[in-house]
Design goal:
With about 90 residues, this protein is an alpha+beta fold. It has 1 helix and 6 strands. Strand 5 and strand 6 form a beta hairpin. It is globular and about 40 Å long.
Length: about 90
């Protein structure tokens, strides 16, 4: 599988009321082949969408499909995150 590459996915914190104070609105993370420094709960919640985007999928988004997603932390939605494929 030489030459096989995955898309980069940019994650942006769009809202944060994080109990640990770790996440701040506007923080960005680029996902290539390794997990970014996110808490396990948030990462486990968004990983399926990140993986799908890295491998060429488009996801349900609004009235259509796009290479983006929005998600909330499973801890009462205290952190909101936006993911999108970048070049």
């Amino acid at each position: 599988m030489e030459g096989l590459s995955v898309a980069k996915v940019k994650l942006t914190i769009t809202e944060s009321k994080c109990r640990c104070g770790y996440f701040k609105k506007g923080q960005e993370f680029i996902v290539e082949d390794l997990c970014p420094p996110l808490c396990h709960e948030l990462w486990n919640n968004i990983y399926p969408s990140v993986y799908a985007l890295q491998n060429g999928a488009s996801l349900d988004y609004g009235e259509g499909r796009a290479k983006v997603f929005d998600a909330r932390c499973p801890d009462e939605g205290r952190v909101c995150i936006h993911g999108e494929v970048i070049d």
